[in-house]
Fold this protein.
Amino acid sequence: KKGSEMSVLTKWSNIIYATFIRLLFGGNKITDVGCIYRLTTKSAWDKIRELQIDGGWAFNLDWMIHIMRKKISYIEVPVNFLPRMGQSVGAGQSKFKAAQIALRMLKVILKHRFNIIKSR
C-alpha cells in the first residue's frame, strides 16, 4: 500500500496470503489481509454472528475467512494512508516479529482449510 509503513517483507507476505486465501476459499479480490475495512450487510453478519470468531489479533483474518466460506459477498474499502502519528503495533516491526505474525496467520488459515475452525 502506497504510504503505509509496512516493510517489503510484510507487503509481500500480504500479497502471498491474500492470493492463498482467495485460492482456498474463493470470494472477491483481497488486497490487504490485515486491513479491517471491508463491508457487508447486516443480514450477512447475522449469518456468522454465532460462529466462533477470534476477538484478538486475528479477528479480521478469521472474520474474512468465515465470510468467504459462507459465500457471503463483501467489498473491500480502499484506504488512503497519511503520515502516522504515534507508534504502530504492526507496521515497522522486526523481521522476527513479522515472521511470527505470518506463521500465526498461516495457522489460522490452515485451521479454516482443514475445518478445525467450524463455519457451519
About this structure: The mean pLDDT is 81.
